[in-house]
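queue> pop job 88
queue> type: inverse folding (structure -> sequence)
queue> payload:
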């Protein structure tokens, strides 16, 4: 599997994982009267997931861009997609 494909797969999985972590059944687990440094646990969980999703999205997009540039550079260095340049 190429680096570009792996990065594209991560870019696809990240929003799905974030959606899963913020779905109502899982949010109900954190819906208590407990506070974390004065912030309700539900809000702390939701904000943490949201912030981590933004950081992960930035990292994935940076790697995806680097992988796309590397694939483009490889393609221009080896037209036809193969190192030998020949058919087959």
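queue> result:
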């Amino acid at each position: 599997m190429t680096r570009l494909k792996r990065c594209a797969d991560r870019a696809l999985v990240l929003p799905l994982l974030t959606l899963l972590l913020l779905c109502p059944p899982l949010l109900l687990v954190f819906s208590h009267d407990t506070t974390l440094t004065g912030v309700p646990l539900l809000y702390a969980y939701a904000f943490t997931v949201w912030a981590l999703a933004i950081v992960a999205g930035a990292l994935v997009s940076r790697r995806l861009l680097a992988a796309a540039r590397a694939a483009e550079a490889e393609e221009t260095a080896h037209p036809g997609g193969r190192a030998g340049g020949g058919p087959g």
